[in-house]
Amino acid sequence: MTTILIVDDHPAMRLVLRHHLSQLLGVDEVIEADNGQCAIETVRARMPDLVLLDLDIPRSSGLDVAPRLRAIHPQVRILVVTALDPAVFVSRSWQAGAQGFVSKTQDIKEILRAVEAVLAGYTVFPVLGRGGAPRQSMSADDEMLRRLSDKELVVLQMLARGMSYKAISESLFISNKTVSSYKARIMNKLQVSSLVELVDFARRCRLTP
């Protein structure tokens, strides 16, 4: 019996994926979560075979959630299905423990092929470099982003969404003071001097849809 968990905060996207997984692939059980915390709780309770994970989700980030899912359920396979920029997030998704990455803009048949491949034990990334690591073509902004750790990138995403320090600290299980420290380090690394500039940079780099 195959169980797939869809983690996406858009009901229409979950509905489309659920329909095609059930009708075209014959998946036995498709379950859903609309935020990061719900995804963690669902994986702990249901132990799915595969998680289709959006990176831009409420109450966390897919980059933060992915390794936590693998810690709970080491055998789970993770396929990132997102609208965020592949040039920024393919490599990071791989590093976070995902076995594949597809864009929401791709045809549904391509997404389903990726699902089948990841379930069969393969990895599916747009471009692979040496050793199986996804390779990115780097722009100036990409080079700036490479300076950020995964956790700093997650905090940057959350700040760009307008989340408060309190909401970020609760999602990432860190203190408000730590969030403030992350923000200061991010601003220093990206050479910006205000939150407005920080948000503009994040949007320019398509860190949020």
TrEMBL record:
InterPro entries: CheY-like_superfamily, EvgA-like, NreC/VraR/RcsB-like_REC, Sig_transdc_resp-reg_C-effctor, Sig_transdc_resp-reg_receiver, Tscrpt_reg_LuxR_C, WH-like_DNA-bd_sf. GO terms for molecular function: DNA binding. GO terms for biological process: phosphorelay signal transduction system; regulation of DNA-templated transcription. The keyword Phosphoprotein applies. Keywords: DNA-binding, Phosphoprotein. SUPFAM superfamilies: C-terminal effector domain of the bipartite response regulators, CheY-like. The keyword Kinase does not apply. This is Putative Response regulator receiver, LuxR family. CDD domains: LuxR_C_like (cd06170), REC_NarL-like (cd17535). It comes from Cupriavidus taiwanensis.
